[in-house]
Amino acid sequence: MGTIKEIALESGYSPATVSRLLNNDPNLSITADTKNKILKIANKLGYWEDHQEKKIKPTVALLYRVNHKEQLQDEYFTSLKQALVSTVERDALKMKTFYDIEDLIKNASLFQGFIGVGAEPIENAQLVKLHKVLPNGVFVDTNPAPELFDSIRPNLPFTVKNAIDLFIKNGINKIGFIGGVGPKHDHIQENDLRSITFVEYMKTRGMDTKWTCVEGTVSVENGYKLGKMVLAKYKNDLPEAFLIASDTLAVGVLQAFNEENVNVPKDTKILSINNSNVVKYVSPPLSSFNINQKEMIDMALDTLTHLIIRPDRPKIDIRMNTNLVVRKSFVPQEK
Questions:
Q1: Which of these, 59, 125, 205, 262, has the minimum number of CB atoms within 10 Å of its CB?
Q2: Is there a contact between 133 and 111 (Cβ–Cβ < 8 Å)?
């Protein structure tokens, strides 16, 4: 298929420049426009079909979307960002962070692709604009536009089902769920995948879903509010265990339970999701499903690199399984 000489001829750059770029010469200094043009022609001429072992080093943008209103929720995405920065430094890549999608759109020509981190809503019209100028993008943990961009996400349906199965294996059949509402896309409120999966899977197992409490945002404050609501309604009829949609909510729920002298794990057990640092230090420490952020970031960069050299392939949505980290809020006897 396409050779370095053919790419050089069509691009108007020397074979030496083309070769140094495609072989990741760290001392090569060229503009982003030059890099984009050479890579585009390399794709067009099918260069990568005969050089699949090669791995390019793209210049990438980070689109970082957090609201800075909820510390624990922000910490999760901050950790993802730090994992990305560490990996970029390890692999000697170039990256610039953007906090506003319009700024990234204006500067799109400087990059071969982007990684999206964070959960702040983005208008679909903005995502379409971004795709027109920078179509190579991978969102981590969320994907507001799966028809436009790739994504690497934790396998939350698997996690919820795994939690329910684990409770049942340990003789627990009265199971509650506490969660927040899902994301908004283009002003449309979506249901959270964890709560949907919980209700559907509990029904398939023939189990009662009356202890399901889903309302509000993912925040410690809302977790506290939901904990109080649950106790006001079910204090004399608590389930044997709760699955809580995130550690951020679980911290607030645990605070509410402690204030009302509900003993965890004696009166009810708790499983949470995320395995953030804080859950080791609350009382009792929370058993939580770990989301391997480093692996998600590594997978996101590999997926982006593959997309850059295979821009016409179908979009990818990868779900990565979680693993349970056991602490005092629930210690399973049967796994």
A1: 125
A2: no
Phi, psi of 14 (to 5 degrees): -70, 150
Question: Model pTM?
Answer: 0.84
CB-based contact 52:80 (threshold 8 Å)? no
Q: Are 304 and 60 in contact (CB under 8 A)?
A: yes
Is the domain covering 156-290 a CATH 3.30.1330.60 domain? no
* Residue 218: strand, helix, or coil: coil
Each residue's pLDDT tens digit, 104-153: 999 999 999 999 999 888 899 999 999 999 999 999 998 899 999 999 99
Query: Can you give the length of the chain in residues?
Result: 335
**CATH topology of 4-50 equal to that of 156-290?**
no
Q: How far is CA 25 from CA 3, 18, 207, in A?
A: 18, 10, 60
CATH top class, domain 59-154+293-320: alpha beta
The strand pairing partners of 98, in sequence order, are: 63
